[in-house]
Write a structure and sequence with these properties.
Mean pLDDT: 84
Distance between the termini: 41 Å
Strand order of the largest sheet: 11-10-6-9-8-7-12
Structural class: alpha/beta
Number of helices: 8
Low-confidence stretches: 1-12, 45-50
Amino acid sequence: MRISKIGDNPPQTFCAGASTRDMFCDLSRDAEHCLGRLVMLQRNLFQVGDGMRSRCRGQRIDQNSIRCSGCEFRDQFSRIAGAGKPIFIDKPFASSVSDAEAMADLAARNGTRAFCSSALRFSTALTDVLGTEPAGSATGADFCGPMAIEPTSPGLFWYGVHTVEMLYASLGTGCRSVVAASTDEHDCLIGVWDDGRLGTIRGNRTGDNDFQGLVHFAGRTAHVDIATASRPFFSSLLDQVMSFFKGGESPVPLATSVEMVRFMEAGNRSRESGEVVSLR
């Protein structure tokens, strides 16, 4: 599988073991920000077809991927969850807790193998830091990055999801509450975990498009700069997706994805009110 250069994404990278065979596109509310990607795919990669359910059940398709934005994912997932094939869902898993819980329940009832992630979770700039210490030993984390606002994916769900994903990669699940401060150009959220750890994300709309962070351990603090990754993060994500498609364990349990949706929904509520919002 080849990743072609799209906009500011890294240049071509190859991931062995698969080829893109078919595509179904359901633009609807996503049309404005997905149309450019659709045109690129049609021009450079493969033909775009119709009939999502029938195509994914066909013999030509071994795995499925759902992507563009989470507001349509519940409907799309419901149409293919019973096909008996593994599914990768691009971030965000869903744009509401009700949709996320319904999708996780549907996957469980159908025995559907599925996982969702931002590519930044698997950036070597982050995984190299986390891999130097025992799993789960981070005492806190702070991440920052761009946070554009997109009407079809409100608040954190469009671009804030990337820093949320890195935060959860560092601290794991167990956040009990979120409080946010928000202005026209900035957002800052503090999450409190059940064991007392704190995790923060900071989003900007000033033109600073770098993703960076600090991961705190008992005896040191490590800096994460995604721009210094040893390989493109989309390539690192594809390695995880291909391993999963070939029968490997999901690198991100659906329960984790549901909690991240809970975090973002609570964060959006706090962005509006300034109050502490419980995830429970």
